[in-house]
Specification:
Number of domains: 4
Strand order of the largest sheet: 4-8-5-6-7
Number of strands: 8
Strand content: 5-15%
Length: about 425
C-alpha cells in the first residue's frame, strides 16, 4: 500500500522525529508499508524503481531455505523475522508487536553483514558470558554503567575487560549466534526487502553464508535429536524431588530458574543460554532425573509429521521451483542437443562420495522431469535427518546440479540464448515466472 507519511497525532502512520530523520523522510513524504499480519511492518521511502520484497510464513519456507535463497541469489537487503509460539499462546508472551521475538539480518551480495535481535540471549553481554569472554559478575557491574551514548561494548573497553579488537570479534560472534539461533525456529513470518542496508555496524564474519547454513543444519539436527527429552518448547518445566549433585554453572543456572510455572522457552530466555544451548542443558537435566519428563505436544491437524520409513515428503515451495527450472533447461537444451538428457545425467555419474546417496535413483525423465521429492526422501533417510534440516540439505544438493545444468546452457547455446535462459531462471527463483 502507498501512503502519505504523517508525523503527528494518533490514527495516522506516525514516526518519532529521530527515526524519521534516520530514514530520511519528512512530513508528507510518500512511503511504502509492507505488513505481515500480526508480526511487523517495514517502512521505506521509494527511490526510483520500486524495491522488491519477499514475504511469507516459516511453515511454508523454513529459515534455512530463506537464507539459502538469499545467498544463492546474491541478494542485498534486510531480512526481518518474527517468531511466535509453536502451539497456542505462550504464557507471558504479549500479542502486541513490541512483545514479539524479532530478528533483523542484513545481507550484502548474499552474505550476512550484520544482525540484531530483540531476544535477551542474543544480546552482547549474554554472548560474551556464554563464550567465557567476560564473567557474570563483571557484566553485572558494567551493565550499571551503561547509559545513552555509552553502550555495553564501550563500557567493557573503558573498564579494561576487552580491547577494541576483542570487542569487534565479540560483535562478529554475536551476529553469528543471532543467525544460527534463527535457524532453530519453526513458527513465524519473514519479509525480505531489497535495498542497501545501513552498514554503520557491518562486520566481516569468518564464515560465508553457506558455511553458516551448514552449521545451522548441524544444530537443527542435534535439536531434533534432543526432542526425545524436550519435545515441546511451550511446556511447563518442573523439578523432581531428587537432590542435585555437583552441577556445572549452566546446569545450576537453568535448574535454579525451574519453578513449575516457566515454560521451556521462558527458561531459555530467563537464563540467557540461547535456544540451542538451553535445550542441550535441559535435556541433560531430564536424563539425569532432576527435571520431570516433558510430555510431547499434540500436532495440529494440518501439521505434517515426517518419519523415516513413512510416506514420502512433499516437494513443495522451492522444490517445485527447482523442478520447473530443470524442465525449462532441458527443453532449451533439447532444441539444439539430441542427447540433452544424457548430457545432464552425466552429472550423476561422477558425483563425489558425499553426494552419491543423496541422488540415488535420481535421473532426468524423458520430458526433463527430475524427481526432487526423491532427493528430499534420500536426505531424510540418510542419518535420520528430518524436517527443515533435510530440506536445507536437499536444496543445497539441487543447487549443485543447477550449477552444472547452467554450465551446460552456456556451453551449448549461443550467448544471447544462454543469457535469455539465465534471466528466466533468475525470474523463476524469485517467484516472478
Amino acid at each position: 500500500m502507498r501512503l502519505k507519511l504523517a508525523i503527528g497525532p494518533d490514527g495516522k502512520v506516525v514516526l518519532p522525529q529521530r527515526e524519521a530523520a534516520a530514514l530520511g523522510v519528512l512530513d508528507g513524504d510518500p512511503i511504502e508499508l509492507h505488513v505481515v499480519k500480526g508480526s511487523f511492518a517495514v517502512v521505506e521511502r521509494p527511490q526510483g524503481e520500486e524495491q522488491g520484497f519477499l514475504a511469507g510464513s516459516l511453515r511454508a519456507l523454513s529459515a534455512p531455505e530463506v537464507f539459502h535463497f538469499l545467498s544463492t541469489a546474491l541478494k542485498t537487503g534486510t531480512l526481518l523475522l518474527s517468531f511466535r509460539p509453536e502451539r497456542g499462546p505462550a504464557p507471558g508472551l504479549p500479542d502486541a508487536p513490541e512483545g514479539l521475538r524479532r530478528k533483523a539480518v542484513h545481507f550484502r551480495d548474499g552474505q550476512v553483514a550484520f544482525a540484531s535481535s530483540s531476544e535477551r540471549a542474543d544480546r552482547l553481554g549474554a554472548v560474551l558470558w556464554r563464550n567465557g569472554l567476560v564473567s557474570e559478575a563483571d557484566l553485572q557491574r558494567c551493565s550499571r554503567l551503561v547509559q545513552a551514548g555509552r553502550p555495553l561494548g564501550q563500557v567493557l573497553v573503558d573498564e579494561g575487560l576487552l580491547d577494541s579488537g576483542q570487542l569487534y570479534g565479540a560483535m562478529t560472534l554475536q551476529v553469528r549466534e543471532i543467525v544460527l539461533n534463527a535457524f532453530l525456529e519453526e513458527e513465524g513470518d519473514f519479509v525480505f526487502v531489497e535495498g542497501q542496508p545501513d552498514e554503520r555496524n557491518s562486520v566481516k564474519l569468518p564464515e560465508r553464508t553457506r558455511e553458516l547454513l551448514l552449521e545451522g543444519m548441524r544444530r537443527r539436527e542435534e535439536v531434533e535429536r534432543l526432542a526425545l527429552e524436550v519435545p515441546d518448547r511451550e511446556a511447563r518445566v518442573r523439578r523432581t524431588p531428587a537432590s542435585a549433585p555437583q552441577l556445572e554453572e549452566r546446569e545450576r543456572r537453568l535448574l535454579e530458574a525451574v519453578d513449575g510455572a516457566r515454560t521451556v522457552r521462558q527458561l531459555v530466555d530467563e537464563t540467557q543460554l540461547g535456544l540451542f544451548e538451553g535445550l542441550r542443558v535441559l535435556a541433560g537435566l531430564v536424563r539425569r532425573g532432576l527435571v520431570d519428563p516433558i510430555p510431547p505436544r499434540t500436532p495440529a491437524p494440518d501439521e505434517e509429521v515426517l518419519t523415516v520409513g513413512g510416506p514420502p515428503p512433499k516437494a513443495s515451495g522451492p522444490f517445485e521451483t527447482y523442478g520447473r527450472i530443470f524442465r525449462l533447461i532441458y527443453q532449451e537444451l533439447a532444441r539444439v542437443q539430441p542427447h540433452a538428457a544424457q548430457r545432464l545425467d552425466s552429472f550423476f555419474d561422477r558425483l563425489p562420495p558425499a553426494q552419491r546417496s543423496i541422488f540415488q535413483g535420481v535421473r532426468l525423465g524423458s520430458d526433463g522431469d527430475l524427481d526432487v521429492a526423491q532427493v528430499l526422501l534420500n536426505v531424510s533417510s540418510e542419518g535420520g535427518r528430518q524436517g527443515a534440516a533435510s530440506r536445507a540439505r536437499a536444496l543445497e544438493a539441487l543447487e549443485s546440479f543447477l550449477a552444472f545444468a547452467l554450465f551446460e546452457v552456456k556451453n551449448c547455446l549461443g550467448r544471447q540464448e544462454a543469457e535469455r535462459v539465465l534471466r528466466e531462471v533468475g525470474r523463476m527463483q524469485v517467484g516472478k515466472a
